[in-house]
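seq:
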Amino acid sequence: MTRFVFLFTFSFIFSCFSFSKNVEKPKLVVAIVVDQMRYDFLENLSNRFSENGFNRLINEGYNCKNNFFNYVPTVTGPGHSSISTGSTPMTHGIVGNNWYDREKSKSVYCTDDSNYDNIGGDDYSGNKSPNNLLVETFADINKYYNPDAKTISVGIKDRGSILMGGKNADAAYWYYGKEKAQWITSTYYMQKLPSWVEKFNMEDNLEKYLEEWVPLYEISTYENYEADNNNFEKLFKGKDDSAFPYDIKSLMKHNDCFDMIKETPYGNEMTTDFAMEAVINEDLGKRGVTDVLTISYSSTDYVGHSFGVASVETQDTYIRLDKEIEKLLLFLDNELGEDQYTLFLTGDHGVLEIPAFLSNNGVDAMSISEKDMTIEVIKKLENVLKVNVKSIISDIDNNQIYLNNNAIDRLALRKNVVIDEIIKILNSFDFISNAYSSNYILNSKNLDGYQKLIQNGFLEKRSGDIALVLKPNVIFYDGKGTTHGSGYNYDTHVPLIFFGFGIKNGQTEKITEIPDIAPTISKILGQKMKNSTGTLLDFIFD
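struct:
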């Protein structure tokens, strides 16, 4: 019922204003988010891409070459939410993939919602909704103006799909592969999967995504890559090295069954095919109103975490994704007509190269255990306060420390003193650049640099009591591989390309930011987003 109240309320509000009904509009808006795509991937691999995939978008569209996230943490949930809403976590509320809920005294996941049941999958994978999102997406605004418009969201990760579609998406689908391969949803959207989804989920159809993974080209032709078998990359269970080939059918029984698909380029192929089926079966772009299709490609993230920036696996995944982009564009041309749809492509965050690899090549880089750091903080804090404070930290998430207020009161301590002492301890570690209290972040005016990134990503009710900044090339990560989340360029600089209807050909070196995307798309549709904090990029228009 919540989603319908939301739709009615905003439909009424928007009906009180006068809008232009005569603006020429595209048949379909296609939003593509590539999970963990750094901007330099576009340039470094351009000679391996065809002229009809990424290079077509660049050559025929408008390339914003200096596009950045303007907040931290740079992770998937906040990334997709900021793209779709044109705002930052301090406004849209998705402050991380997870955050600590003080009222519930536990960590919560950004799309979990026990009020809804799974349609396919299991309880853990399917009890989801966008209700933690506090503002509307550009797709929501489109439906307020045009109630007959459809929004369909597709992504391997539930958060990548759900948070792009918004409160009033007709459907959001994500992938579940623990027991069998299937695309699923929740009762927030529907009571039963459409027949076309059930047909797509048939085992015979999904069998083709279990191919052996070998490089698309001879390994010797891949440039600037780390040796295929090395000690920096994650090992799949059941395999003794990190070298090609990867026998998916053999390995899947050791690696969460059909979930193995998402950790290979074939997860992206499956996502493209599913998205195209959505266009066909939902008649997207063919019903006299502008529909919205969002596609989140997540296999790049799974591969990137495991193998790193310089791996053959990552290069091969992006070369194969280029072919998926080519396939999708050709499909849209044939279904809707060239220049009849507006498309944008961006990333939800970047990534740091594997620190062990960087360190081996003379760069000052390291992975830190968050658990070990917490133990050391508690030990040093006890030495200062002379009391047992083992329960004083409730959680650490998004490089933020959540304190246990009950424990502080029970120990008759003053919270501001505890915060000051922890900040002193954090600043004594050689891998930490700085630490700040929530009071400083929330109440300071005219912050800039990294402090401003923290402020833009901070919401008092959901964020921590202390925010810490790791030094460049340092991550919290256990085991092999790498991660992201910082405010440094390797995590914040991602592609942004607009293409198709209403978009002129060109490029800019101007700084653009992720929240600029949604209001710009809304402008193409003759609409306006009232909660967006982004800037309209009017220089991209024909």
